[in-house]
Amino acid sequence: MNYIAYYRVSTKEQGHSGLGLESQQESVRRYISGTGGKLLKEFTDIASGSKDNRVNLNEAIWECQTHKAILVIKKLDRLSRGGFKIAVRLEELGIQYIESDSPNDNELLKNLKLAIAKDERQKISERTKAALAVLKNKGVKLGSPRNLTNEGRAKGAKAMALKKELNENNRRARAYAANLKANGDTLQSIADNLNGNGFQTSRGSNFNPIQVSRLLGCNSQQKTRAVIPIIKGASTI
């Protein structure tokens, strides 16, 4: 049996220090070794569990599809704190996932854990909003003081300009992909066409079918229009 390992830590400090990451790796690797299976690849994200659109999680899912592999995580909260979205997505793609800390859980237990995680996330959000409201009523200025300096404003303006450029490239790639989809092209074919015409992801890598699916999903309410392909290597999104 083939396996893909996925790890997640919430902060850069945890990612750099190994705090929390090593225990995940030890648990996952021990489980896979005990099954006699093969660990094909490992992926790690440094991101909040409330964010489902994580770069390396998407890559891990893609590898599971490609190699017909099982996704292994230490605990379910490493996969998501946002409820059932990730679980539904994996089910739709035909991908099985296992918690190395409790590999014998059935679907009922997994769904119960997801529901508890979602409830806890909502409670944390409510407590945070309530605390911020109290501070605001006391006249405390919220936000980072670093953003109020000239340097902070300059960085903000630069980030906004970059975001505008990336959004424009996204629109061009999205419209091009939508045209291909309307012609009956598969996600793999669309990815090949995007890559062949110089389109790239925001991280400068080639598109794969999962990324194409997400790109088209963002365009579900937009009207398809013709786009002239750009010269290879001339644009990144």
3D structure, described in words:
- Keywords: DNA recombination, DNA-binding.
- GO terms for molecular function: DNA binding; DNA strand exchange activity.
- Residues 2-139 form the Resolvase/invertase-type recombinase catalytic domain.
- It comes from Ulvibacterium marinum.
- The structure is a single chain.
- With 237 residues, this protein is an alpha/beta fold.
- Among the domains are: 2-108, Rossmann fold (3-Layer(aba) Sandwich); 161-217.
- Helix content is 54%, strand content 10%.
- It has nine helices and four strands, in the order E-H-H-E-H-E-H-H-E-H-H-H-H.
- A four-stranded parallel β-sheet has the order 2-1-3-4, sandwiched between helices.
- Helix 7 (150-182) packs across helix 8 (187-196).
- The longest helix is centred in the last third of the chain and has 33 residues, at 150-182.
Short account of what is shown:
The chain has 237 residues and is an alpha/beta fold.
List the helices and strands and how they pair.
Blueprint: E1 2-9, H1 12-17, H2 21-35, E2 38-46, H3 55-67, E3 70-73, H4 76-79, H5 85-92, E4 97-99, H6 107-137, H7 150-182, H8 187-196, H9 209-217
Parallel strand pairs: 1-2, 1-3, 3-4
Instruction: Count all strands and give the number.
Output: 4
Can you give the mean pLDDT? Answer: 78
Q: Which range does the strand content fall in?
A: 5-15%
* Beginning-to-end CA distance, first to last residue: 36 Å
Strand order of the largest sheet: 2-1-3-4
Known CATH architecture of the domain at 2-108: 3-Layer(aba) Sandwich
Largest sheet: 4 strands, parallel
The SSE string, one letter per element, is EHHEHEHHEHHHH
